Amino acid sequence: MATTTAAPTSPRTSAAPPPSRWRNLLGKADVKLSPYLYIAPFFILFAIVGLFPLIYTAFVSVHEWHLIGGQGDFIGLQNYVDVLQQPRFYTALRNTFSIFLLSSVPQVVAAIVIAAVLDANLRAKTFWRMGVLLPYVVAPVAVGLIFSRLFADQSGLINELLGYVGVDPVRWHSDALASHVAIASMVNFRWTGYNTLIFLAAMQAVPRDLYEAAVLDGASRLRQFFSVTVPLLRPTIIFVVITSTIGGLQIFDEPRMYDQYGLGGADRQWMTVTMYLYELGWGAQKSFGRAAAVAWILFLIIVVIGLINFSITRRIASAAPDRPKTKRGGHR
Amino acid sequence: MSTSVPMIRQTAGAGAARAAARRRGLGSNRRPGWVTYTLLTVVLAISAYPIYYSFLLASSDSATIAQNPVPSLIPGPNLWTNLGRVLGADIGFWHAVLNSLIVAVVTSISVVFFATLAGFAFSRLRFRGRRGLLVFIIATMAVPTQLGVVPLFIVMANLGWTGKLVAVIVPGLVTAFGVFWMTQYLDSALPYELIEAARVDGCSMIRTFWHVALPAARPAAAMLSLFTFVASWTNFFWPFVVLGSSNPTLPVALQLLQASYFKDYALIMAGVVAATVPLVLLFIVAGKQLVSGIMQGAVKG
After folding, report:
1. pLDDT 10s digits, B226-261
2. For residues A26 and A32, what is the distance between their CA atoms, to the nearest angstrom?
3. How far, in Å, CA of B253 to CA of B238, rounded?
């Protein structure tokens, strides 16, 4: 390999033995140590701003800890007990899951369908792909501001359009479920296109002769989609679902911007767990201990949901009938 | 961005093969009909309208907005007035623009540099623990680090960094995604022979990196810097927590704008437009790279 050759072949080595020895040593050290030096920045930074804070969260969560006053007494699991006795915690949990389901499930389905439409011999291919991705460059905060206006209870565009087709105005802000739909639509707006492109790439990696074989077997377009495309998308679906779980359960920006107070509504009807965490730590209570307890609970929930997601997605995707046997069959 | 040989080979290779397959006339690969284009037009309208809507409101005034829930598709005359009011509002909008620019540029450059350095080591150097460490880095992408916000804030407070840009910049100096991305790319784009040649010529490791690996990594580095720039420009939670209102980035400034002028939708939307236009322009210039970046990353990931 490249790394083993350098020093000894240097012509200067034979000319002057003593300094060459030194050079040799230096060269060896260069070869041996450089790789670790090059990857070190990531590990150092991750240790300081990623891993340490997560672990230290557990330490903070078993103490009384005030935003300004700092560390107080060790109080065991009292912060967890306090949090778990608050009805607001369960409201936040419910809202988070509701928003998460309303955003992830329709989003994955829509992304796969749009990708299937894009996976054709289109004119101006790049134009359509860019069009789908456009919302990705709009900050979630900006999306939140735009959509909170679109979904205004009074004289909002969505309610006006619904009025045209005879639907009564929806109370997008005061009704809990309606507010979740509005917030989920912000997430879907920003991320559907991104995921569409991921699915599109996976679809284009499906060997075309599989479709040819399916056509020969008399499969319709729809049948091809469900029996060839979807099963082969399995690893991609798992990837998208897991990343959207990790992000979706920590959602903060969009619900934070849904009204001017940022507390999640008068009855906290759209307050998410991360908003609750922020309110505990930086709101009136200024209790870092409780905020840390919420962070750890959410962390465990994300891990569990991630595992459940993983097994469900695997099962659904592999349950599709007549999975074609191909060289790529054992993929992943 | 300058196109390099491997880049051309990748796009031309795969694309050409597919085009050839299509020409051979697979039943499903003829040109699609109007249904497809109609569907795509609807999707495009849904992607673009909310952005255009913010522009329409930003060029209008409060009275008109209140009277017309569905704004006229023709922009009003007040865009510059409203933008001027945003810049004049007491939230320091220019300051926020500058802050966002500094954070986005510094993190983009730093992520590209450190990710390429690590990617070079992982893809082309041999060392003990290479595979394990790479797997570890990929696994960290699944760690919800946002949940470490409380201790991270405590650390920043102890360093006296709260309210300072450095508190936002430092945690973003290098990302797991970046390292993974550059490793993948250099695996396919950097021939061993080139490194060998540089080493035989007596280049030290770091010179080999600088003169051989870094130039070879340019196309992927450009994409990575784009993604980092967008992510940094749109990032809200951590800057909001650690910076507060005195020294905001753009998303934090938008939040302040909403909190203090919530009735004045023309003003708020002008702020949205001001914060979004730079990225939309970037998207028009480099959107193609973003598209192919996501698609390449997907196939490899």
Report:
1. 999 999 999 999 999 999 888 999 999 999 999 988
2. 10
3. 14
Here the CATH number for the domain that contains residue B192 is: 1.10.3720.10
* Alpha-carbon distance values, A244 to A99, A103, A188, A194 (Å): 12, 9, 11, 11
Q: Quote the minimal CA–CA distance from B64 to chain A in Å.
A: 11
Q: Does B74 touch chain A (CB under 8 A)?
A: no
Per-residue pLDDT of chain B (301 residues; tens, 9 = 90+): 333 444 344 444 444 455 444 444 444 456 788 889 999 999 999 999 999 999 999 999 988 888 888 998 999 899 999 999 999 888 889 999 999 999 999 999 999 999 999 999 999 898 999 999 999 998 888 888 888 999 999 999 999 999 999 999 999 999 999 999 999 999 888 888 888 888 888 888 899 999 999 999 999 999 999 999 999 999 999 999 999 888 999 999 999 999 988 889 999 999 999 999 999 999 999 999 899 888 887 554 4
Angstroms from B102 CA to nearest CA on chain A? 17
Number of domain units in chain B: 1
* Inter-chain residue contact A160 with B269, CB threshold 8 Å: no
- Is B85 within the bounds of a domain? no
ipTM: 0.87
Residue at B135: amino acid letter: V
Distance CA A270, CA A53 (A): 27
Residue B215 lies in a domain: yes
B29 at A interface, C-beta within 8 A: yes
- Asked if A41 and B118 come within 8 Å (Cβ–Cβ), the reply is yes
Q: In order of start, what are the domains of chain A with their CATH numbers?
A: 2-61 (no CATH), 83-330 (1.10.3720.10)
Q: Say whether B145 and A137 touch across the interface (CB within 8 A).
A: no
| Domain membership of residue B143 as a residue range | 91-260
Please report, as a single letter, which amino acid is at residue B37: Y
List, as ranges, residues 86-105 from B with C-beta within 8 Å of A. Answer: none
Query: Has residue B196 been placed in a domain?
Result: yes
Q: Contact at 8 Å (CB) between B228 and B176?
A: no
CB pairs under 8 A between A and B: 314
List the single residue in B36, B170, B200 with the smallest CB-CB distance to A120. Answer: B36
Q: Do B28 and A3 touch (CB under 8 A)?
A: no
Residue B178 lies in a domain: yes
DSSP letter assigned to residue B121: H
For residue A74, the distance in angstroms to the closest alpha carbon of chain B comes to: 16
Q: What are the CB-based long-range contacts (under 8 Å, 24+) for B177-180? A: B177/B141, B177/B227, B178/B111, B178/B112, B178/B114, B178/B115, B178/B224, B178/B228, B179/A39, B179/A42, B179/B114, B179/B115, B179/B118, B179/B119, B179/B122, B179/B137, B180/B134, B180/B137, B180/B138, B180/B141, B180/B301
Distance from CA of B165 to the nearest CA of A (A): 15
Q: How far is the C-alpha of B120 from the C-alpha of B184, rounded, in Å? A: 10
What is the reported pTM?
0.86
Q: Which residues in A lie closer than 8 A to residue B39 (C-beta atoms)?
A: 117
> Rounded to whole angstroms, how far apart are CA atoms A72 and A5?
59
CA distance B14 to chain A (A): 10
- CB-CB: which of B140, B150, B179 is closest to A57? B150
Query: Do B71 and B65 form a contact (C-beta atoms < 8 A)?
Result: yes
